[in-house]
Amino acid sequence: MQALESMTVLLPWLLVYYLSALTPGDASTCVLQNDFEPGLMANGDFLIGGIFPLHYNQEMPDLNCTYRPGPVKCNGFDPRAFRWALTMKLAVEEINKRNDLLPNYNLGYKIFDSCAYPLTGQRSAVAVLNGPNEQESPMCAGAGPLLAIIGESGSAQSIVVSRILRPFGIPMISYFSSCACLSDRREFPTFFRVIPSDAYQVKAIAKLLLHFNWTWVGVVRGDHEYGRFALQGLLKELEGTGICVAYQEMIPLLYEHQRALEIIRVMSHSTARVVVVFSAEGELTPFLRDYMEQNVTGIQWIASEAWVTASVFTGSEYYPFLGGTIGFGIRQGQIPGLREYLTTVNPESYPSNPLVHELWGALYDCSPSSSSLNNHLPSCTGQETIRVQHSAYFNTSSPRISYNVYKGVYAIAHSLHNLLHCTPGKGPFSNSTCANIHNVYPWQLQQYLQEVSFTISGETVNFDMKGDSIPSYDLINWQRGSAGNIEFVNVGRFDGAQESGQELVIQEKAIMWPGHQTEVLVSVCSNSCTPGFRKAVRRGQPLCCFDCVPCDSGKISNKTDSVECMACSEDYWSNDDGTVCIPKVVEFLSHDAMGLTLTVIAVVGACLTLAVFAVFLYYRNTPVVRINNSELSFFILLSLTLCFLCALVFIGEPTSWSCMLRHTAFSITFSLCISCILGKTLVVLAAFTATRPGNNIMKWLGPTQQRIIIFCCTLVQVVICTTWLTVSPPFPYRNTKYQQSKIILDCSVGSDLAFWCVLGYIGVLACVCFFLAFLARKLPGNFNEAKYITFSMLIFCAVWLAFVPAYVSSPGKFTTAVEIFAILASSFGLLLCLFTPKIYIILLKPEKNTKQHLMGKDK
Which residues form the G-protein coupled receptors family 3 profile domain (predicted)? Predict the structure, then answer.
């Protein structure tokens, strides 16, 4: 291909050198080496060239260089392309008849056949440069009669022709070349087109894929610049859209059956059910025949504008395989009188034109009697029925490419009209001059062509700085016609002049999908991830292939196909589905089942203590009450009542006051209780020790001293608590770290040191009391209270030693519940151990409630 491009650039200069080398003595004499006559020609004041693919393949001559090669032979007459050529002829004749456009001037034309092949298109370009007839002597001075060219159809051919025309500054208006590469003004400065660039077509296709959520597609293209640049443009347009290309296949320029089967095998086995095809109908026709032979169905075809309206595919045999095809076609327009004009073309009107005779053979499958061509066909009588496959020749109800040819001719005519009616002193050239109307150069016409703007059939025609026209497409859907054939139905439009997001308009209810379905076919590599899941890309596969992974706890995704899960804020947590952040459950020891149970136990304990207090108060004069200092017993009962009641402060939502009260209240009440028990223990120990001769210890443990001991021991705890509340008091704390799905409302101790000092001090009092009671456990007497104090302290210490690890390890409201349990258990232990034996004697064994019995002197 690089060699071909180089050859096209050098060819004009090689021709000049070759012609001069033939006759060194006479440069004005030229020898024509080969004849390449135009298919249609007419003289005029200004000449327009036309290049059309009147045949769709060619037969290359033998190039063994042992004899003079023959001319290239073109095969496969294309009636549709001939209609394009006739449209150019019609437009020129219309313009020549008008009085408001180019008055007093006539346009001429010279139309050549490119055989849909770049090399033949190159030959046509050289031929069209040589004046009205190749056999005329070449001009050596002044402007040539050729001002512009209408052509070419394929982008590959247009690239070749445009490079040949570039040195001569001759503008070319293409009616069917859409390759985005032709917008490069540095490489193709004289190229214009009335068909949108593929840069817009790929945008339209990308928006179409996004609209129907086709994220997994295949691409098939032809082996030429059109296919290559269209694929590159589509891949660039799909970047960042979430659409992936499952495969890229290329139909070879020289068609190979085996290669076609490989492509079809890839298409049929791929999970991509949508295939975008950038190809011309020439190479696509044999490919589709092989495709139908393999009986592959269920594929949604996305056709490029190069073949979406190709009449060759309208036969009924194509519908089961291509029905439902959708693609963007060239905008249709109206050409007045085109159908009537086509009917005037017949062998009688053009007896010496071989193209008309070939047309007759293609339309009626016969050969005109006056024709020497197609002798293998029967002679025509004029009553033959038109062949179905070429009925589109007369189908001019919605012309598209023909309309582009029509616009291209009128663009040249309007530009030339503006050039000829230039106001002196206001021209576009140096010193504001105008062109010489008797000697117009092509580059001067290009200046006006760049700025031309006119209206035709209600459409404004102009060109941007790249030579491109306004991008506008019709969205075409292939639907079944009444005769079983394929009809091209307009179901939408893409208008590149609209604002972003409003370019594509689709009438979805009017679309018929493959298999005569009414629902859109699904083409995805992986099904969408529902809310609550995120996409996890599979290693080594495109982004469209992924697994759906549920969001982690505390994270959500509230839309389809989320790439990441969003973390909930600190006070919120994800629901079970992972779709919504909901407020975290606030947990604290409330008045639920557990809280009510602890409340009842605490109230029952306080009531029992008060009941004991009432019994002791009623029997305050009995020996059992008096023998062990009734005042201390009442102090102990009152402090135990407070111990039971302080447990209630721990139940309910923590507040600043409750947090400060709960720890200080229980620590002070327990300190008071243990201090009273310590005082009682000292009294018991002193009472039995005082019986020894010379021991007067009891005078140091009178009621006043006992009160001082209780007050001092309790005061120490009060000082510790006061310091604690002053320096770093307890406060409500929202714990979101321990259990992420919940907010644990608890009381932070503020100062850990102060908290453990409080507990430690209570522990010290209990240990001292336990040690003293242990020493007095074996003293004589039927009612030695030291034994009960020892046992009560043993229970007390065991409860609080078990509390420490439970407090540290218990989560949430259970931490508070453990602390309440320790308070209640130790309180019940003290109440039962200290007062149950006395209540038993007072209420059930009153006969033992005597001084003699209690002192062990009852015989």
Answer: 594-858
